[in-house]
């Protein structure tokens, strides 16, 4: 499972931070950061979800008010 995060779309509500430790606050930019994320495209970051944290990653995506977070299963299908 992997998470894709569009940092440009992020508006800094930090709801994802409350749901999953995979995100952290960047108070300098007023946006969230995807911990350990690699930039796959301009301002789009991707990270594999550690085993046991899948549910938290899904919740982080679901609470994002601007849909800046997408979760994909191992087959590449978007699940959130």
UniProtKB/TrEMBL annotation:
It comes from the Archaea. The keyword Iron-sulfur applies. Pfam families: Fer4_15 (PF13459). Keywords: Electron transport, Iron, Iron-sulfur, Metal-binding, Transport. InterPro entries: Fe-S_cluster_ET. One of its GO terms (molecular function) is metal ion binding. This is Ferredoxin. It comes from Halorubrum rubrum.
């Amino acid at each position: 499972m992997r998470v894709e995060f569009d940092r440009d779309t992020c508006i800094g509500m930090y709801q994802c931070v409350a749901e999953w430790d995979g995100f952290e606050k960047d108070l300098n930019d007023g946006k969230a950061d995807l911990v350990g994320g690699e930039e796959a495209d301009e301002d789009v970051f991707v990270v594999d979800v550690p085993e046991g944290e899948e549910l938290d990653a899904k919740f982080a995506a679901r609470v994002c008010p601007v849909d800046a977070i997408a979760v994909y299963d191992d087959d590449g299908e978007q699940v959130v």
